[in-house]
Every structure is written in structure tokens, then in C-alpha cells.
Amino acid sequence: MFAKLFAESGLSLDRLKALLAVGAAGSIVKATGGDPVKQSQYSRQIKELEDFFRIKLVERHGKGIRLTLNGKELARISRFFLLGLSNFQRGCLTEEQTFRIGASASFIQRFLVPAVSRAEVIQGDIRYILEVVSDDEIERRLHDLTLDFGVTTSAAISRPLQLKELGKRRVGLWTPNALYKDEKSVALAFKEQQLPLAIAAKELDGCGVVTFGGHNCRLVCDNFLQAFEALKEEQVAAILPDYLNLPAGSKSFFRVRVTEIDSRLFHFRLAWNPRLLRLNPHAESRKNFLSKSLAEQITGRSA
Q: Residue 94: is it exposed, middle or buried by C-beta count within 10 angstroms (0-12/13-18/19+)?
């Protein structure tokens, strides 16, 4: 079955590892940490892979290089194969399992950290690596198997990736008393696009809130956590999800009802690649744990 594959030299785990490293780093220099000996080695190994398969695997891109379409496909196959070997080795050596989870910064702080920080989780034999990743990047990295799980607000995801609904939360407009004293004034200022705002544009995309092209956006933040901190300075209003620890009991802030904002919902979904479940026998139980624990965190239910 594999006679032709091994009929000539040029294919090895080391060469495939070099291709993965260079593809991830975007250049041979970055992949080797500037080591000239390794640079020569990686260049030679990738050339040997190209000679073996008789195709181009990398191409120039700006000051670095990137994988060609064939290079990306070989990298995907290689990553899948090496991940299976790595999991097999860990099982043989009874080593701890590591799972990478991607989500937004605010979701990680509010839901993910509490879910994986409980005593029974921390004291177990599973290690978690939490990464701030956008929805688009989550999808790509799940396909590449460089993430094990992701929490996304996307309603659909490309095959063979799968989704499981975790729960939904609302967003609202919060304003400091230092700006306006009543809801009517704030609502009018917002309608007339005069209300100074701090917004987390990327995260707001996840629930389809109105676009802010004409609004008085004084601060465009990377995430809700930053917008929340800006609100506390009492110089701008902010559109925030109800899962943050909003200053509901404070007399310095109040929530304003705005239909186009209050009608929007965040639907959080756990995403994974079913290939991971076939490669790693521990992944199924982690998927079930995350689904249950995060759903409880989001909906406020306890087991």
C-alpha cells in the first residue's frame, strides 16, 4: 500500500516538522530564532520535501514566506498525523493532557477562567491554555488543529467543524451621570449620534448591534473589558454585555433602554473539530465538560 511513498528518500518527520514551523512563523528566520545553522537546515529540509513531492510548498510573501496551497494541505495532513503520534506518546507515558481553548477576552475572564479554575479541575491531570482569538481565527485554527476548542458567536461554521449552543446573553447601553442625568436625554443623544461612546467593535459584531460609522465614538476598544474600564472614568457611555460586573448598584451609572441595542443577543457556541475526537480519546470528555460547565456559567444554573 505504501511502497511508492517509501521508494525514495526525502520524506521524514523532521522535514514535516520544519514545514510546520516555517508555515506557522511566516519565515525561516523566525522559525529558527535567527540561528543560521538551523536556517540552513530548514531551507534544505523544505527543498527536499519539494523534491520528494515535486511541487512548490513555500513562496515569497513580502519579507517572509508563506505556504502555497499545496504546502498548506501537506501541513494540515502532517499536523493531523503528528498530533495523533503525540497523543499516543502521552498515553504511553501517562503524561498530562493539554487543551488549547480560544475565545474573546471578556468571555475568557467572565466564564472560561471560572469554569477551569475550580479545585477539582486544577487538581486533575488536565492542563488548559486559554488564548484570546477572534471568531474567524477560531475557525481557521480549529481546521488546522492548532486549537482544540473555541467559543464563538458564529451561527454557522464550515465543515467538518461542529457547534454546540451554550447559552445567550444581552447587551445594554450604560451611561455615567456625569454626562447626562436621565434616560430620555441619553436616548436622544444616541439617536442623533452625539453621545460620546466607548465601543468594542469586534466583539459587538458577534451580536449584530448597529454599525457606528456616524456615531461619536471617542474610544474604539479591542474588547469589552477595555470599554468597561473606559466607562468607569465617567467621560463616555459604553455598550456592554450583561455578563460583566456592571456597576448596577452604583449611583454614578445608569442603563438606558435603546431598542436597537436591547433587542440584540449574544449566542455563545462551543466549536471543535471532530477529527480531534478521533485523534485524542480524552477530547470527548473535555468537550462534554466544557459544554456543561460553560452552559451553567452562562445561564447562571448550577449542577
A: exposed
